[in-house]
Write a structure and sequence with these properties.
464 residues; seven-stranded antiparallel beta sheet; eight-stranded antiparallel beta sheet
């Protein structure tokens, strides 16, 4: 097989037998992209796997698990422990009606593979692309845990909940809503380790040795939180740039228990529609807001080919530089093997896990923060997005893996025309006029400015 000589690709082609020399050696020329299977048997033949099932990258929702069907000491389906170990065991308190419950089992800080001990244990479920969901769970904090021990529920979480929307409740009924996972007990009061607390409060008459029901909903830039059916937050403001998994965890190494887990869609962004016409040769590449929640859109579906071409899947066309010069636009053209203007260089493995630069020659594959058009540019992170990450589930090329500060909404590579952003010119005009006003104040001399000409420049019209 060879996955660089197409499409269409050479798959399971049977070649002529290889002759073995008298020294019992043989020679095989393996081209770039070639995959070979060698055998001494002569009865082998190409098999059949039947029809290829339709790709369904989105995790199916709604999803619920009461953990009753999970064997003792086993991990619940679809959860992925990132630090700590979450196993299903019998409930320790109020066992009536509760079969298995998911329990955090690690009693002390382990050797972490990413986080070395700044946050508590966490297990994840779902998709890196999720944003608008409702997640709910029952929890019980252990009797011997300290009063500040918490049970936590999160959405929009990255792998180690460094970025997430998380609500935690401790044994006194004090709750916090933070933009990250909880700091470990003992670290939470250190200045550099303090959580990014967005909201907090206390619940009266909270029973520490009883099961409680916690619910968290994030929709765009709003969050709702309830405890035991009582609302703690209603449509409170949060930033809308984060995406990620749902999370269960705590702020320490104690056996917190969870039961009756549920997650479901929330909000209206679960039915994407076509944003523009079908892509064709010659269309310029741009960026637009990423379709969220694990859904796909035809204009944002790209494939990283093994020969470093970037292929738009619906059209079958490849990203191509019109020239190898700076400011050269990137358009869709017929994929041609070996065409230099289609060979984008990047770390083929890391681009699926973090932002990496994408280069064509020495120029950066760049998207303007103002016009959203994709071109070749010198390194300039102020005016351009120049680092990219690939989300294989939704086949999106994104400018963010996790939210960078208070950055703009995640942008995805697209074949749609750029959306006009008139406010950017207005803002630039206001900055320009402010500078003129400051010059007048500092020099005491009115600088003559042809305002009509300035307006003509910023509005791309002829001054009258």
């Amino acid at each position: 097989s060879n996955f660089e000589d197409g499409p269409p690709y050479t798959v399971f082609k049977k070649d002529a037998p290889i002759l073995i020399s008298t020294e019992r050696t043989f020679t095989l020329n393996v081209p770039v992209g070639g995959y070979y299977t060698l055998t001494t048997l002569d009865a082998g033949k190409k098999g059949s796997a039947g029809s290829i099932p339709v790709s369904t990258p989105s995790f199916p929702l709604p999803y619920a698990d009461d953990f009753n069907a999970v064997d003792e000491s086993q991990e619940a389906r679809y959860f992925s422990d990132q630090i700590g170990a979450f196993e299903v065991h019998s409930a320790s308190v109020d066992a009536k009606g509760r079969g298995g419950v998911m329990t955090q089992m690690v009693p002390e800080l382990p050797v972490g593979w990413s986080d070395r001990g700044s946050r508590g244990p966490v297990t994840l479920l779902g998709m890196r692309e999720w944003q608008d969901v409702t997640v709910q769970v029952d929890f019980l904090l252990p009797e011997r845990a300290p009063q500040s021990a918490t049970a936590c529920l999160g959405t929009r979480s990255d792998q180690m909940w460094d970025n997430a929307m998380v609500v935690c409740v401790d044994k006194t009924g004090y709750y916090t809503v933070t933009a990250e996972g909880p700091r470990l007990l003992g670290l939470e009061n250190q200045k550099k380790e303090k959580n990014k607390v967005l909201y907090d409060g206390s619940v009266g008459q909270f029973q520490s040795q009883a099961w409680h029901h916690l619910s968290l909903t994030t929709i765009d830039s709003r969050v709702n939180v309830s405890l035991d059916g009582n609302s703690l937050l209603v449509n409170s403001f949060i930033r809308n740039v984060d995406t990620g998994f749902v999370a269960l965890g705590s702020n320490g190494w104690f056996p917190v228990q969870f039961d009756n887990f549920k997650v479901d869609k929330a909000g209206s962004k679960w039915s994407p529609t076509a944003a523009c016409d079908t892509a064709k040769a010659g269309d310029r590449l741009t960026t637009r807001d990423c379709v969220s929640n694990g859904l796909t859109a035809p204009d944002q579906m790209f494939e990283l080919l093994a020969n470093y071409q970037l292929r738009h899947i619906p059209s079958g066309l490849c990203a191509t530089a019109n020239a190898m010069d700076l400011e050269a636009p990137i358009t869709l053209e017929t994929c041609t093997k070996g065409r230099i203007s289609q060979v984008l260089r990047y770390d083929y493995t890391l681009i699926r896990n973090k932002l990496v630069p994408v280069l064509l020659g020495k120029a950066h594959f760049s998207a303007s923060k103002w016009t959203r058009e994709v071109t070749l540019e010198e390194a300039d992170s102020r005016q351009y997005w120049q680092d990219w990450v690939y989300f294989p589930n939704t086949q999106q090329v994104r400018n963010q893996y996790t939210a960078i500060g208070e950055s703009s909404y995640p942008q995805c590579l697209s074949t749609c025309p750029p959306v006009p952003r008139p406010y950017s010119r207005v803002r630039s005009l206001l900055v320009f006029l402010t500078i003129i006003a400051l010059l007048r104040l500092l020099t005491g001399r009115p600088n003559r400015v042809d305002l009509a000409a300035v307006l003509g420049i910023f509005c791309r019209t002829k001054p009258h």
